[in-house]
UniProtKB/TrEMBL annotation:
Residues 185-357 form the Peptidase M16 C-terminal domain. It comes from the Bacteria. This is Zn-dependent peptidase. Pfam families: Peptidase_M16_C. InterPro entries: Metalloenz_LuxS/M16, MPP/UQCRC_Complex, Peptidase_M16_C.
Length: 426
């Protein structure tokens, strides 16, 4: 049974991905732009989508733009930024009612695609510069976004772990760029960067819904024409050679310590043991029945939370936990012991089958939303793979105990980062 079927068309300057489904009463359009992370560009990239979604030539103010969305039966438009391995990805998502379900004959699919193309192709620009007021307003908001990561200590400690662990690697750059670079951006420099991104980024447009493939192709062909390009791929990514484990402690005025531990998995999306790694992470720390949750949180009562997650395109596994500073040594010891247990095969068949069932449910739940479908399919673009969703589930299901032991043995502890309160320093 095909979970989801995707057809891909080569258009001028981008790929069009169509997923036909009768599951939703809406049509969803997702435009993704991907480029290798770089210190010079990352802050421009973090600002750009927010400026583009504020207004456009045809919709010169946010008010005009938003009221037009309301006219399209309350269509929504929002933007998002992500790091996928050492790539930076900008996403525009637009959702609109499917006209088949309306008594009104308005051609919403066409209008929505027209609107999206206006936002992307005809921005509010005069003399090679974006509207100055819009840029200044969005710069202020971007600074708040960067500051909010500092204020949220869970996010802050996750970021600090990555900065320390991946020092000298592109992955250490923050998805929102850096505070110091925001001030240097001008309306002119941002427009120059917009032209560069539109000419060079690898671009993918996903259209999901109960739609006519021919109609979608005809509309996008008319509206969204770009110059042909070769996707910019990462230059040889050099992984650091094996080194001694780094331990970093940072003191701030926090009530609860944040312990974040980074491992190199030496496995990325598309590798043959990637599916076994997914299951391994699930048993180790991915879910409420996992070893970290039970041993660190429940049995030893050391942590307020304890979990692990994978960065599939960079080959990292991160453990996050909230602990009191006096429990630091004991918590680190138990977290290490659970990985040793995985390497020894010290987990039951029940843990294995329960984890696979939870992963399957989570996966199918993700595919219940149009945006979830895109997130899962987009892994193939990032990794230059062609793994179907059915194949994903089959391969994960096939992972044996031996496969999981084998992939666990590849995992190496790299960095331990602990954010602790001022009382600990005294």
């Amino acid at each position: 049974m095909a979970v989801v079927t995707e057809t891909i068309h080569e258009m001028k300057g981008y790929k069009l991905h169509i997923v036909k489904t009768e599951k939703y009463k809406t049509n969803t359009f997702v435009w993704k732009m991907k480029a290798p992370l770089s210190k010079e560009d990352v802050t421009h990239r973090a600002l750009l989508p927010y400026v583009l979604q504020s207004n456009a030539k045809a919709y010169p103010t946010s008010t005009v733009l938003r009221s037009y969305l309301d006219e399209l039966y309350g269509a929504s438009l929002f933007v998002d930024l992500a790091k996928k391995g050492e790539y930076h990805v900008i996403t525009f998502t637009m959702e609109v009612a499917n006209e088949k379900f309306l008594s009104d004959p308005t051609p919403l699919l066409k209008k929505a695609l027209d609107f999206l193309s206006e936002i992307l192709m005809n921005p509010n620009v005069t003399n090679q510069a974006f509207d100055k007021d819009t840029v200044e307003k969005e710069k202020r908001t971007l600074k708040q976004r960067i500051q909010s990561v500092y204020d949220d200590k869970m996010k802050y400690s996750s970021n600090r772990l990555v900065e320390e662990m991946c020092k000298g690697e592109k992955y250490a750059l923050h998805v929102h760029g850096d505070m110091a670079s925001v001030d240097e951006i001008t309306s002119e420099s941002l427009f120059a960067y917009y032209e560069k991104a539109m000419a060079e980024d690898e671009i993918d447009l996903y259209v999901i819904g109960d739609i006519s493939e021919e109609e979608v192709k005809a509309v996008v062909n008319e509206k969204l024409q770009l110059n042909a390009r070769q996707p910019k791929l990462l230059e040889n990514v050099i992984l650091p050679s094996k080194r001694d484990v780094q331990e970093i402690q940072e003191v701030q005025d926090v009530k609860q310590g944040k312990l974040n531990i980074g491992f190199r998995t030496n496995v990325v999306y598309g590798d043959e043991d990637y599916f076994a790694l997914q299951v391994m992470n699930g048993i180790y720390g991915g879910f409420a029945h996992s070893k970290l949750f039970i041993n660190v949180r429940e049995k030893a009562s050391l942590a307020y939370y304890a979990a692990s997650r994978l960065e599939s395109h960079k080959g990292l596994m991160m453990v996050m936990s909230g602990i009191d500073y006096k429990n630091y040594e004991q918590a680190v010891t138990i977290i290490k012991e659970q990985l040793t247990a995985m390497k020894k095969g010290d987990f039951s068949d029940q843990e294995l089958s329960q984890t696979k069932a939870v992963i399957r449910n989570q996966f199918l739940e993700t595919l219940d939303t149009a945006r979830g479908i895109v997130e899962v399919l987009y892994h193939n673009v990032v990794a230059q793979q062609n793994i179907s969703l059915d194949e994903w589930l089959e391969e994960m299901d096939k992972a044996t105990k031996e496969d999981i032991i084998k992939v666990s043995e590849k995992i190496q502890l790299d960095t331990i980062y602990f954010l602790t309160g001022t009382e600990a320093a005294q």
